[in-house]
Amino acid sequence: MKPFEYNRANDLDHAARLTSDGARPIAGGTNLLDLMKLEIETPDALVDINRVPLGGIEPDGDELRIGALVTNSACAADERIRRDYPVLARAILAGATFQLRNKATTAGNLCQRTRCYYFYNTEMPCNKREPGSGCSAIGGFNRIHAVLGASDACIATYPGDMAVALCALNATVEIATAEGHTRSVPVRAFHRLPDDAPERDNVLEPGEVITAVVLPAPPGGKHVYRKVRDRSSYAFALVSIAAVVRMDGGAIASAALAFGGLAHKPWHDERVDALLVGEVPSDALFDKAADLLLDGAQGHGTNDFKIPMARRTLKAVLREVTGDAE
Amino acid sequence: MALIINGREYAFEGDPRTTLLDFLRRDCDLTGTKKGCDHGQCGACTVLVNGQRINSCLTLAVMHDGESVTTIEGLGTIDDLHPLQAAFVKHDGYQCGYCTPGQICSAKAMLEEAANNWPSFVSENLSGETRLTPDEIRERMSGNLCRCGAYSNIVDAIVEVMEREQ
User: Fold this and answer.
1) CATH number of the domain at A225-322, out of 3.30.390.50, 3.40.390.10, 3.40.50.300, 3.40.50.2300?
2) Are A62 and A216 in contact (CB under 8 A)?
3) Domain region containing B158
């Protein structure tokens, strides 16, 4: 690990001053420290924000505000999350292990980096790790890579589960800017596609600190998080789907779907949601939804299987979420 | 700054790069906690911080100023084994034993999480009481690898302690 300067912040102003000077915030550290050991991340300074008061899950009107430092364990165990936003609890529990979730935080989880093999292999070119060096996954082993929204510079995927559920729920990320203001970004717009700047995973600007994630009023309906992976526990998604669907008199009254494992960001396609609303569930309808989702999907060799897998998973999730069975 | 480890205060002054795991093993001479992968994948380094199980390889000692750490040395002694230690011996919950301190620390915290009704990925119902079936135990212990493959005996050992506690 490269040497770094360590400072602990006790309040947000202190943290913001240090991040404005280039320090990287560290909370749980489960991803950042791993990457620092491998010298993929080499920050000159860390600011430990664990003692900044950014914890707690508090209602704000109909909304529910999850502090940036709330651990994944605490979030998934919270009674309100389990009752009103079960898709979020399910998605969190589908990721990592109890040990990691006890450290991993809400904000840190959003900012976790790709698990692309070549991003981790400092012997190989990677535009995300070293801009301009090339992409080894294109033409290489790309079993876990993107089939939607990739670019010639990068075909990495966003690896997380929690953010996929937050996308389906249309949650908002609350951010403290370096100038001391607050701005809000929908989770759906927080992560970026790689384009020609894959080194930027999300829209956070230098010096900014995530302060909370805000869930809108409970959406009701049926919630499903389905994750397809190589082993049944402690593995990243090949394909995952978060679905929140409300039925009314045999037709779909509202639908919000988000997809993991397919792209550089949790994938949300409002055309898919819109197609389903007002319709009576049928396999033909679900096929149409998959056609729309996967229009333009492109495999890169070893990840070609993800395209039919995404279709099958979507159909299975839609059958489950629109069915009568509890 | 100092950490409270197994009830005793240990001063920390040194390179901020020191992980909690390296601090325990190298500076405190508490070598019961094992270094396996050093990347949070195997669970051999599992300890309890403020009662919660974490991977001690993926956190810095400097981040735990004033916090309470429990390692395998803090659970039992050779003359007075912790019930989980005794059950692992009885059920042969290991072969080489390298993962065992992590397994036992992890199992201790797992029983408390379940008592607090924390759900897991395999819980059918997100509300209500947690019943630790063997499937639940396997899912909740999936952060602790055993390369010898003693998993079935590990589950048996945990089940015995759980049933005795109920």
Assistant:
1) 3.30.390.50
2) yes
3) 83-165
Question: Could you read off the pLDDT of B58-85 as tens digits, one per residue?
Answer: 999 999 999 999 999 999 999 999 999 9
Task: Give me the residue from B15, B62, B142 closest to A97, CB to CB.
Answer: B142
pLDDT in tens, A116-173: 999 999 999 999 999 999 999 999 999 999 999 999 999 999 999 999 999 999 999 9
Residue ranges covered by each domain of chain A: 225-322
Whether residues B14 and B46 fall in one domain: yes
Of B22, B49, B74, which residue is a domain's last?
B74
User: Does B108 lie at the interface with A, CB-CB under 8 angstroms?
Assistant: no
Nearest CB to B143; choose among A83, A90, A100? A100
Measured distance CA(A149)–CA(A23) in Å, rounded = 31
> Which of B16, B38, B118 is opposite residue A77, by nearest beta carbon?
B118
Q: How far does B109 lie from chain A, in Å, by closest CA?
A: 9
| B46, closest residue in chain A (CA to CA) | A99
Spatial CA neighbour of A150 closest among A196, A86, A87: A196
pLDDT tens, position by position, A273-313: 999 999 999 999 999 999 999 999 999 999 999 999 999 99
Task: Give the sign of the dihedral formed by CA A134, CA A1, CA A69, CA A115.
Answer: positive
Domain at B126, CATH number:
1.10.150.120
Q: Where are the alpha helices (DSSP H) in A21-112?
A: 32-37, 72-77, 79-84, 86-93, 98-103, 106-110
Closest Cα in chain A to B119? A77
